[in-house]
Amino acid sequence: LDEPRRLPLSSPLPASRPSVYHSPEAFAAGYAEMERSFKVYIYPDGDPKTFYQTPRKLTGKYASEGYFFQNIRESRFRTEDPDKADLFFVPISPHKMRGKGTSYENMTMIVKDYVEGLISKYPYWNRTLGADHFFVACHDVGVRAFEGLPFMVKNSIRAVCSPSYNVDFIPHKDVALPQVLQPFALPEGGNDIENRTNLGFWAGHRNSKIRVILARVWENDTELAISNNRINRAIGELVYQKQFYRTKFCICPGGSQVNSARISDSIHYGCVPG
């Protein structure tokens, strides 16, 4: 085989591992080109009473979706010219609809009407059947609302807070968006392995098959801190968060709901997520 073509580097690749890439130089050049030229077009918002409007405070379990909307609108990759776009963002969130008591069936119809309106007004969806379009659904409300729209679920890129197959996650096109609850209750943890006396930690409801098996097999293991229920806050303040400080490996099993900030909590408190 011919020697792979070496592309000129615009900047060094400091943390690359040659074994990861067929050509580290080609990867670095391609990445630099992406940084220079990648563009996203955001479709106009729908009815402000129905669709997503970034709130003043990005807190709680829905904050990740809010940060996504806010950051992409402020991003340097955003373009106002759809003809220059590589990807198209569909800025719709059923979260606000759910707060108004809208049923999942009606949410699906509202989303369907909005997206079909974009398809009829703009030529970009039909070029790829939506393969270069993406949307975010970082909670169970959004996932349920989009379930009735197979043309979006199967074709478009979904940024979801759970890579679980229970939400029809399609690995070759969908993206896992780590959920975060900010502000964190305690400061970040560090390189303090001598203070981490628990080998592993998990606490939560047994609301999935993997969690049931986990609790049954490990709940009596003395090296692990396993609780098959939520930690009782009556025994002290921030008990759940403090367990992360005392643990080397934090177990992050999927549950019945889409949202979980356990992975980002683990990283923040210095515990290896697994």
What does the model show?
- It is a single-pass type II membrane protein.
- It comes from Aegilops tauschii subsp. strangulata (Goatgrass).
- Keywords: Glycosyltransferase, Golgi apparatus, Signal-anchor, Transferase, Transmembrane.
- Belongs to the glycosyltransferase 47 family.
- GO terms for molecular function: glycosyltransferase activity.
- The chain has 274 residues and is of the alpha/beta class.
- The chain folds into two domains: 40-176, no CATH class; 193-273.
- The chain is built from ten helices and ten strands.
- It has helices at 24-37, 63-74, 95-99, 104-121, 124-128, 140-146, 150-153, 209-218, 239-245, 262-268; strands at residues 40-42, 78-79, 87-89, 133-137, 157-160, 175-176, 198-203, 224-227, 247-250, 272-273.
- The strands form two sheets. A six-stranded parallel sheet has the order 2-1-3-4-5-6.
- Helix 4 (104-121) packs across helix 6.
- The longest helix has 18 residues, at 104-121.
- The protein is globular and about 60 Å long.
- The chain starts with 23 loop residues before the first helix and ends with a strand.
- 23% of the residues are buried.
- Mean pLDDT is 80; it is low at 1-11.
Q: Quick check: average pLDDT?
A: 80
* Unreliably modeled segments: 1-11
Approximate helicity band = 25-40%
Query: Could you say which overall geometry the principal axes of the C-alpha atoms support?
Result: globular
Helix/strand class: alpha/beta
Per DSSP, the total helix count is: 10
Main sheet attributes: strand count, strand direction, barrel closure: 6 strands, parallel
* Order of H and E elements: HEHEEHHHEHHEEEHEHEHE
Trace the largest sheet across and list its strands: 2-1-3-4-5-6
Total tally of structural domains: 2
Count of individual beta strands: 10
* Alpha carbon gyration radius: 22 Å
Percent of residues in β-strands:
5-15%
Straight-line N-to-C gap = 40 Å
Domain Exostosin GT47: 35-273
Main location: Golgi
Protein name: Exostosin GT47 domain-containing protein
Family: Belongs to the glycosyltransferase 47 family.
